[in-house]
């Protein structure tokens, strides 16, 4: 692949999401913008974070939805159709505590077997932060407001509502770790 990972990721995400799911595409672009802002402050290798940010919801694309679980469907698509970088694929598969949603769907063992969690907690936290501080329309928001929006959109008793309730402490902890790392940066 001659193009950079980020250019390729943006092209793939746009092709899959922009026409079929324009609001999801707006969210993905917003998450990528957050990652572009955040990445250089946390790591010298920001490209995988930004690429994962733009691709994290690609599995929602109707043609890719095989299991109905976007994290798994997106990761399989990136691995199987594109031979994407393993680190990138694992970030997409496990973004925003996807293992907990996979458990709600009866898919946890499959997700864990195919796409083990990354050991790079800082990178994982950064993607959680970017996703959970971006609205569905791609605007910046607080993690608390985003969690409330997700619960309101899906309903507290829905599968996603149950997942968000279970994941909220972990999401807020990840956001807190990123905010602490940013606060410790020299100004």
Structure description:
- This protein starts with a helix and ends with a helix.
- The chain contains ten helices and no strands.
- It has helices spanning 5-17, 22-42, 47-55, 70-82, 86-93, 98-104, 108-114, 121-132, 143-154, 159-183.
- With 187 residues, it is an all-alpha fold.
- Helix content is 68%, strand content 0%.
Q: What about the largest sheet?
A: none
Strands, count: 0
How many H/I helices?
A: 10
Q: Which consecutive residue ranges, at least 5 long each, have pLDDT under 50?
A: none
Strand content: under 5%
Radius of gyration: 15 Å
What is the helix/strand order? HHHHHHHHHH
What helical percentage do the residues reach?
A: 55-70%
Distance between the termini: 37 Å
Write the layout of secondary structure elements.
Elements (H helix, E strand, L loop, with lengths): L4 H13 L4 H21 L4 H9 L14 H13 L3 H8 L4 H7 L3 H7 L6 H12 L10 H12 L4 H25 L4
């Amino acid at each position: 692949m001659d193009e950079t990972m980020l250019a390729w990721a943006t092209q793939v995400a746009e092709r899959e999401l922009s026409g079929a799911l324009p609001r999801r595409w707006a969210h993905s672009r917003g998450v990528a913008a957050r990652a572009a802002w955040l990445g250089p402050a946390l790591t010298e290798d920001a490209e995988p974070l930004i690429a994962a940010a733009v691709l994290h919801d690609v599995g929602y694309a109707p043609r890719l939805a095989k299991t109905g679980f976007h994290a798994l469907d997106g990761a399989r698509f990136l691995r199987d159709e594109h031979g994407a970088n393993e680190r990138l694929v694992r970030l997409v598969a496990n973004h925003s505590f996807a293992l907990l949603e996979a458990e709600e769907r009866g898919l946890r063992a499959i997700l864990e077997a195919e796409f083990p969690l990354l050991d790079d907690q800082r990178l994982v936290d950064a993607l959680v932060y970017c996703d959970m501080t971006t609205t569905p329309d791609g605007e910046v928001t607080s993690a608390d407001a985003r969690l409330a929006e997700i619960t309101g959109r899906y309903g507290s008793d829905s599968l996603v509502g149950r997942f968000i309730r279970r994941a909220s402490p972990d999401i807020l902890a990840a956001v807190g770790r990123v905010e602490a790392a940013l606060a410790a940066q020299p100004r």
